[in-house]
Amino acid sequence: MRFEIVTIFPGFFTSIFENGIVRRALAEGLVEVGIHDLRAFTHDRHRTVDDRPFGGGEGMVLKPGPLAEALGSLGIEPKAVPDASGAKAPTYPPSHTRVILLSAQGRPFTQAAARELATLDRVVLLCGRYEGVDERINQLYCDMELSIGDYVLSGGELAAAVVVDAVMRLIPGVLGNQASGEFESFGVADAEIDTEIEGVPRSQHGAGGLLDYPHYTRPAEFGGLSAPEVLLNGDHLEIRRWRREQQLRKTLANRPDLLENAVLSKEDRRLLEAISQEDG
Ligand code: SAM
Question: Which of 123, 161, 253, 263 could be bridged to 189 by S-S, CB 3.0 to 4.6 A?
C-alpha cells in the first residue's frame, strides 16, 4: 500500500516516520510513503501557494492551481464537473485509490474508516493550511473529507500522520501479531475474527466495538496497588470473563455512545445492567 501526502511542510514527517512500527513497515517495504512538496508545483519566484479569500474575511486559502498540478503529477485527474443544469456528474467505477482532504469539516475518521482505507492500494492525503483549501479541489478531486476530531488544528499534517499510522497498522504483516489489530479498542465483533487462539485467552474475546480493557505487567505490586488477582492465577476462562467485564465498565464510563452499536451478548447486557445499578 502506498500513501501520498501533499503538504507545504514536507520536513514535518521526517521524525514521525522514523520511529516504531511505521519505520519498520517502511523499511520492510510493507508500506510506502511519498511526500510531495506543494511549493514544487508553483511557478512564481516566491513559490506562492496561498491567496486571499474571495468575499473577504480572515486568513489565506490554499490556491487550487498548485494542488491540481500536484495531483496531476500523481496521475489523478479531475472528476467531471456537474453541468449548469445541475445534472449530477457521472459516477466512477470504484478504484483502488482514494483522494482524501484532511479537514475539520470532514466526516469523522474512525477505526472503521481506517479498516476501509487499509484495503486500498493507494491513499492520497491533502494537507490544508491557513483557512483551508479552495473548495473546488474538494469538488474536483476528493473522494472524501476526513476529520480526526472535533477541534481545529493549524494544518492537515498531524491529521495525515494520524491516518497513516492508524491505517498502516491494519495492513497484514505490519503488526508483529496480526491478531492485535482485531483484539483492541473499536475491534471487530467475535464473529468476524478468523484467528483461533486455543487455550490462550483472546485478549478481548471480540471487542465488537468496545474499548480495550486495562493492561498490567510486572511488578505485581506497584505504588501500593496490586495487579488484579484474576490475571495472576492462570485461569483463562476467568481472565476472559474479567477482561470482558472491564471492557464493558470502561466503555460505559468513558464512551457510552459506543454501546449503541456494539455487539453485545445476553451476558454482556446482564453485566451492564449490574454495573449501572452499582453506579446508582
Ligand atoms: N477554517 C477551517 C475550519 O474552520 O474548518 C479550519 C482550517 S485549519 C486552521 C487548517 C487546516 O488544518 C485544514 O485545512 C485541515 O487540512 C487541517 N485541519 C484542521 N483541523 C482538522 C481536523 N480536526 N481534522 C483534520 N484536519 C484538520
Answer: 263
